[in-house]
Structure formats: C-alpha cells, structure tokens
Amino acid sequence: MEQLIRRAAGILARSQRLVVFTGAGVSKESGIPTFREAQEGLWARYDPGELATMEGFRRNPRRVWEWYAYRFGRIEQVTPNPGHRAIAALERYLPRVVVITQNIDDLHRAAGSSDVIELHGNWRYYKCLGGHTGFTRADFADQTDVPPRCPRCGALLRPDVVWFGEMLPAEAIERAFAESSTCDAMLVVGTSGLVQPAASLPLYAHRAGSPVIEVNPNPSDITPLADIFLQGPAGQVLPKVVDTLATITPGQETGFPAACG
Ligand code: OAD
Which residue in the list 84, 108, 120, 206 is annotated as catalytic? Predict the structure, then answer.
C-alpha cells in the first residue's frame, strides 16, 4: 500500500489540472450514510422510487419533504472529515484542483475546496414546481404547510436536488465533462460508479490518457479502469497521500509557489 500511495502522490505532484471526483463514500466518515451499501445504505432501507422521483413527490409530497428534512437535519450537524480536508489541502501543492461531486452536503466547500462542481444539487437550496429557484429555508421559515409553498407563485416547494429521471444542472454537467476530458489526472473517491451520467466522468479522463487514481474500501465499477486503486476509507488513505505529496512538492505554507517542485 505504501508503494501505491507513493506512486499516486508522484502522479499528483506532476499534475497541472487535477480533477477530484467524489461520491457518498467521502462523506461516510462524517456520519452521512451512503446509498448502495448493503444494510446501512439509504437505498437498502428506503425506496428511491417513492422518495427521490417526481412521481413519488406528487404521490406523497409530505413524506418526501419530511424524509429530506430528516436527512438535511443530519447534514446540518456534521463536519468535514480528514478525507474532505485532504482533498482541500491538495490546493496547497497543485496549481489547479477542480472537485466534481455527486454529494449535496456541501462538505467539500466547508473543508476549504475552492472550485466545486455539484452535479446533484445542494441541500441548502429549494425550488418550486412552478419553476422558481434559489430559495433557502429562510424564505419559508414562517410557513406551517408541509411542504411549504413558493413565496412567489404558491406552487409546492421541493429540495433543489436531482431526482431519478431528472436532468442534471446543465452548466454543472457540461463543465464536469469538459474538466474531465482535459484534466491530466483524476482522483476518484467514494463512488460506486453506478449512476449516470456522472459515472462516465472517469472514462472521459481515462480515454484522454490521464491516469485515474481511485480511493475506496471496496472495488467499484470504476476500479477496472483505475491505474492505481488505493483500497481503504478516504479519511485514512487521503491524508497519507497528501503527506507523501508534501514531501515531493513543497506547498505554499513552506514559502514555495504551489506549482514549484
Ligand atoms: P453509493 O452509495 O452508490 O456508493 C458509495 C461508495 O462509497 C461505495 O463504492 C463504497 O464502497 C464507498 N465507500 C464507503 N465508505 C467509504 C469511505 N470511508 N471512503 C471512501 N469510499 C467509501 O454512492 P454514490 O456513488 O455517491 O444520486 O451514488 C451516486 C448517486 O446515487 C448519489 O449521488 C445519489 C444516489 O442515488 C442522487 O441522489 C441523484
């Protein structure tokens, strides 16, 4: 493992355009459950067809709203873990790091990552069925309806996250494909690689000839195309990668320019 970590750090040290692509696994050590792991994964315990589709919402808006309120209540209480912090720390050593995440928890930004593309939305935002967007909880704090109503048109509000069968935010997915096709290395962390179109991003990097490094305690659908598979939890593996990188590429805190070395 030590040797693999050194190889991974060597690839990162040479990168001028790194993409870090993350999924639910990177937030697991913060206390947020993943989706597809047996028993503890959310989709092992709840029916995504009822809770994460527009049809499910139309059938029972209150149930969907309350389920998200429960999940968001949990997200509100958690903090970034050493995996998120290690990803943010990459910016000290590399000239360009873009984080593309499927997570809605905002923990990459909380950890200090400065360029985060969110493919599946963000838990802080809501939109209405009438097409109005950009609401936060403060906008309906005085309402007692469940779900609350749009302050502008009175339609039902819903979380501004991507449900099954819905398009991803166009700007986010377009930029994600562009970054993945033009990066010179991709670090994939904590995703099963099963949900399209996000799951294709490592393939774009791979096809462009860029090395793909994967961090996951379990093999995933990405593993067959990974050049280096670092098997283990992100919160344990990534700090080691960054510590090793620090010995190769002096970071800004040492007084060296980030791209130097
Ligand atoms: P999954 O639940 O499908 O996969 C989580 C991955 O994290 C698995 O491969 C685990 O092995 C791995 N994992 C578990 N613990 C880990 C740890 N400590 N460190 C690193 N990896 C760990 O979650 P996603 O791939 O993110 O979509 O799922 C993709 C999308 O499916 C989600 O964004 C969500 C879901 O339906 C929407 O809600 C639209």
Answer: 120
Does the structure show a pLDDT above 60 at 220? yes
Beta strands 18-22 and 185-189: pairing type? parallel
In the chain, the domains with their CATH numbers are: 1-31+81-120+168-249 (3.40.50.1220), 33-77+125-161 (3.30.1600.10)
- State the average pLDDT over residues 106-133: 98
pLDDT digits 0-9 by tens, 59-108: 999 999 999 999 999 999 999 999 999 999 999 999 999 999 999 999 99
Compute the distance between CA of residue 198 and CA of residue 3 in angstroms, rounded to an integer. Answer: 30
Give residues with Cβ within 8 angstroms of 167, minimum separation 6: none
> At residue 157, what are phi and psi to the nearest 5 degrees?
-90, 150
- Can you tell me which residue has the tokens 């993350």? 22
Give me ligand 1 centre to Cα 199, in Å: 11
pLDDT tens profile 21-52: 999 999 999 999 999 887 788 888 888 899 99
Q: Which residues, at least 6 apart from 108, have a Cβ–Cβ distance to it below 8 Å?
A: 22, 80, 84, 87, 88, 99, 101, 116
Residues 6+ apart with CB under 8 A from 252: 92, 258
Give the pTM.
0.93
* Annotation says 108 is catalytic: no
74 in helix, strand or coil?
Answer: helix
Closest residue to atom 29 of ligand 1, CA basis: 195
Length of the chain: 261
3-state helix, strand, coil in the chain (%, to 5): 45, 15, 40
User: Atom 7, ligand 1: which residue's CA is nearest?
Assistant: 25
